[in-house]
Queue: 3 jobs
Job 1
Amino acid sequence: MDIDGQIPDVIPLPYLPLSSSSNTQLIPRIDESTNFGGGNLMDRFIKLVDELDNHVEKLRKDAITLQEKRDYLSMSMDLLKNNDLLSNLQEYEREEINCYMQRVHSRLATVELNVKTVRNSAQEECLHQVNVFIDSLISSPDAVISRQRCQMFLNACDGAPEAASGSTRDPCELTVDKKFESSLLGCTLDDQKTIKKRLHALITYLNKQTISD
């Protein structure tokens, strides 16, 4: 809880602009005047397909960026909903805030983004387990414990640093949550990268919250 009684900041979201280039530039065009450095007609088609492939890859990256932003917004609302300062409000005030948050959450739910990651059944189960671990941090009323567990989850993503002799560092910074690590390693590489970004955003929020308590 902030010492001045203010609601802690939610997760900061960077401005994430998309390309403003005209969509008409994506339309392939090939005729006798098309020239990609010479070559036969087959080479020209291959170069066009290569160009389209580059556009598809950029589209995937832009969609993933938007998907991450949507997930951060959802996580911010969940954290705010579980903020202990809400208990300081009158009941009618809490109801008003909860109704407002529900309206915002409903609007967010109208935005559907899905960049498909190919997973087998084991990878799907591991991802589900990881999400359960992370959701438990968000719903926990104890920000200090959540921060410590989040740090141990991040250690599983990065590998726990070596403990130096006589180190005064927080033991949580040198510890890996083995159950989380086991589930994490069963996820796809793309999912592992996304999980790491999500945990970094979460611990940034939790650090601000626990420091100001």
Job 2
Amino acid sequence: MQIRRTFHFCASHIVRNCTSKRCATSIHGHNYEVEVFVEAHRLDHAGMVLDFGLFKNEIAGFIDAFDHAHHFWDRESAEFQKCIISTCTRYVKLGFNPSAEGYALMFHLFLDAIVCATEFHNGEAPLSVSSVRVHETNYGYAQSFKADLQNPHLMRHISLESVHFSAGILEEMRDPTLLDKLKLYYNLRACALIPPKKPFLAPPPLSQIH
């Protein structure tokens, strides 16, 4: 079973190497919509896949970090990067070209990693992000699926190391250590014999009927 939650952010970018001249050569912006699909194969004690309120924690914080910022590929010229860094408080340096497809894959990777690194306390089944849609406009979107995260051709530039937030963004995040916690958890999990403690904690329900 799946549930869907929608998020929004505004940002600017340049999509290098594309055939549309305006997109490839000029800074421009979009009002992005991100649809996150979460799936489970049983329901929790409340009869839900996941309480929608829990999306407001690390998932919302991560997506909001992209809002009102300029996003740029780390292959931009040193001169261009210096200009952005010296004039923008909020910017995101990316290890991939910031196309809608790149965003869909990146958000899918990070949001699924966040869900899997969260300790839940209401009988939730194992959860995963099954799909992510990213709309740049109201007439088209890019969508990623679970299998895409295992495709080396799609993911060759996208990893937990491919997103770097500016100091101005980190200062405004509810948890400025979110990325550090996420990377440390998965680094430990890759080499530890015993699974490490999950870094994110979902609050338990206020009351339950048994």
Job 3
Amino acid sequence: MPYSTRLATSVHILLAIYHFENKEKVTSNFLANSIQTNPVIVRNLLGKLQKAELVKVEAGVGGAHLTKTPQEITFWDIFQAVEDKNKPIFKANDDTNPNCPVGRVVNSVLQPRINKIQEDFQLSLKATTLASLITDMDEKISKNEQKA
């Protein structure tokens, strides 16, 4: 089962908006070229990010802009914007064999640990801001430009 790339793709979108918004018109086509994906996927994610009030998208060729500072945008904000809020991040198997000694107890052993992992995951996302990635991104871009 593949994992969702919506968080990573959305972070890419926000980093590109931050980096290019005063240099280029940051359109879905422009972003799709950077991500190497279909502009429809970008427009879908931009719509979700806009609904969460993380970006503003101007119709036509107006481009996209951040609506908050990078310090105010956490990975949790992004995750909540683009992922299904009603779907658990991790889930125990609902279909275990009640006639098996392991099958009878596995969920009662596993679920408390899954709950803790989900809680830690959420806290980690809340502690990570877009600003922290921008610092790293700007440093790497600068180093790459110096090499060129």
